[in-house]
Description:
Elements: H1 27-37, E1 44-45, E2 60-61, H2 63-68, E3 73-78, E4 91-96, H3 99-111, E5 121-125, H4 129-144, E6 151-155, H5 159-168, E7 172-173, E8 184-187, E9 207-210, H6 219-226, E10 231-232, H7 234-250, H8 256-263
Helix pairs in contact: 3-4, 3-7, 7-8
Amino acid sequence: FQACGLPHQYGVLELPDKGGLDDVNSATSQRFRDYLASPSFGGLSVTIPHKLRVQPFLDELTDSARKIGAVNTITPRPALVTARTTLGGSSVLTGDNTDWIGICECISKALRKRTGATTGRALVVGSGGTARAACYAMTSGRRARGEKPFSLLVYARDTSKAEELAKAFGGKAVSELEKVSVDAVVSTIPGAANFELPPSTLRNKPAVLDAAYKPASTALLVQARAAGCPIAQGASMLVAQGVAQLQQWTGRVAPIPAMRAAVFEGVEELEGDS
């Protein structure tokens, strides 16, 4: 906001993990409604574990948020004015998901550095909310950006969850990775899990994004870079999804260099040598 010359402030709204928004009649829910209705309210970033809980408080969801099933961005929009009525004279609260945009941006950039053969396939690792955003990104999201959608493969420790997720996005679940060859990999596993791929999966030099951004250098990114794969780190995804949020809230072109510098302050940049 400072880089744009805007007077807005961006702060933290702490809500209980449990027993708060789950009860729409609770004191926490009323506090949240009051916050959303405030004349000074300009938008929200929504973090885990609230990406599902905020939805009953919203007026509408974008197509991407509906398909992903999670909201990470709330934007107030002027209420429609018709000849008959003004809808309360207030704002319409729109829930969106920009995580998929961050994923698409990172993967598209890394793909331009690829030297491996084209397979037309992408692998998503994990089965949580970020995995859903990744599945959308690799299929409908790429199509929305004018890029060719990938054939989707999904891998998770819980095979039934992988199958459910793959089905929701027109993909296929895989139970083992040794024979998997793809153009892109998006891992949504926590960095502390030290997840790595079988060396055979990296033989085709896929673009690899690890959505985890703490720590910056995950076991997967170290492995992928050593194998000669172009990589994208979670901090870059964080920047890209935030760029989309700011542009929704303000209608302005985001100051990407300033935003990236803020996010990467004290964070190791890994992508330059990939």
